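Appendix C reproduces, verbatim, an entry submitted by the partner laboratory led by Prof. M.T., so that reviewers can inspect both the input and the predicted structure.
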Amino acid sequence: MDACWSVGLSLSFVDTFVGLILIRRALLLALEVGDLERIVRSLAMVAGGSATTGSSWRRTEQLVRHTFDLAERSGTTETRLFATIARGSSLFLKGCYREAAVHLTDVLQILQDRLTGLVSESVTVRMFLIWSLGYLGRYADLRTYHAEGLRDA
């Protein structure tokens, strides 16, 4: 399950289709064992990925909403974080850069203030945020987040 998740996450930036196949496999395995945290984590990626695979925006919104519902049931900060990442990344992939930047900024703040050890997630969120800021022409903010990312590396 975790191997599917890790490899799928990495591949999703190189080969979205293959990456999402592995993420969906991780979701099926998490559902099989009833691990709510891993279900939320995988569903969040499926939701974000649905914005790139030709799914309707309505379907993507349903997946994000379902991810939030499960995250609330779980009650952990980490699952809420993954749900918010799904919302921010799917908004970015839809071209709603302003809304995406708001969600991604919130997530990055949570990652920096309250959660440690989620390095891959921090890098991914920062990347989507920097891209959003670039599309919005907010270059001063982009430089700040870019410099923070380099410092954290």
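The chain has a mean pLDDT of 91. Additional entries are available on request from the coordinating office.
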